[in-house]
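Thread: oxidized coenzyme A complex, take 2
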Amino acid sequence: MSKALNGVRILDFTHVQSGPTCTQLLAWFGADVIKVERPGVGDITRGQLQDVPNADSLYFTMLNHNKRSITLDTKNPKGKEVLTELMKVCDVMVENFAPGVLDRMGFPWETIQKINPKLIVASIKGFGPGPFEDCKVYENVAQCTGGSASTTGFRDGLPLVTGAQIGDSGTGLHLALGIVTALYHRTHSGKGQRVTVAMQDSVLNLCRVKMRDQQRLAHGPLKEYSQFGEGIPFGDATPRAGNDSGGGQPGRILKCKGWETDPNAYLYFITQAPVWEKICDVIGEPTWKTDPNYAKPAARLPRLNEIFGRIEQWTMTKTKFECMDILNKLDIPCGPILSMKEISEDKSLYATGTLVEVDHPVRGKYISVGNPIKLSDSPAEVERSPLLGEHTEEILSKVLKFSASQIGDVRSSGAIGEVPMAAE
Ligand code: CAO
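Output below.
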């Protein structure tokens, strides 16, 4: 079966997490992704958080499936020549170097356009133009500067970063959409263009509802926040709201049976207005259906702590899965807090390809997260990440059509480092 992006070739100049998540998605959709790595070193994540000695780390393998790897010293004159040839035969170049790196390497946008006017150049930077544009940026910096940290956590605690990698993987997702949009545009414009995404902007985009609340503050307190029910005045910025729901339907994380010993014996419970009467019945408070203090959503807002306290008395008598079973049948929205262990053991996620088991020649079998985006006519098949420089010879000979003597010249220039001859 042909894949959606078959025929698209990506020059993948990305490293660490943000850029690689983007190019991995494109590879899963069928693009030929050629990852350019520094000879002898490669993507720094190959050696970070190593759990198996001398094997590429899970950090690297889980972000670089379905790609080919070429080693190339792009500061070496011969390396620059090879990079130039690669730019000519690729449709998209993706990079997430620090600001100014590509220019210093000798490849500013104007030069790239001359090399291949059809090439789409996609970049991730920490910030857009402005006071911080020259800064190097990692995940948590983006979470802090994009509005996530100031709105995550409890009101009386520190700002918190979240485990969801919204700065890196979130930006990679945004960039992937920009790339396919530019590819579509090229089908009628005939030209490449620049696609840039700043990590701060991506995080802010994902924190859109908190900017909504920032403006609502000018018109009164945020009544769905527990802070309102507790009688605590609001300041001039969107506060941290614990586990309050971000939408108009109040929600909380509640203890379930076993919470004393199991850190994940909890359930997210939403008191959605249309199912309020069912909630009253299930928790054993049928009079709340008609009591004017509880019957209508507006009346409940100042009493959310009391209401959720009562619901929790009920959830604590059941496991999170028993709660889920009972509540789902009544269309009461809820969700168990699932640990990574529980998720990794969920067979249904393997059946859909959301989780996959991958075999790697050095590290052996491991679990990875597959493509969460399902295309009916272009299913993703997860292939292991490449070893450093595994495809160097193959790319020089088959993609760039270099002759044996040209490859010899590249090799003797030191531009590709110590690369083993590929098996024919
Ligand atoms: N051959 C030769 N040199 C190479 C090379 C290659 N194949 N690949 C990279 N280099 C060189 C670059 O040319 C650069 O050299 P100069 O500084 O002399 O110009 C050097 O490697 C370092 O590149 P870098 O500054 O991008 O890398 P870093 O490790 O210092 O910084 C990071 C990493 C992520 C902070 C920075 O790249 C960055 O801010 N990127 C944009 C934001 C981003 O994507 N952040 C997410 C990272 S994931 O948490």
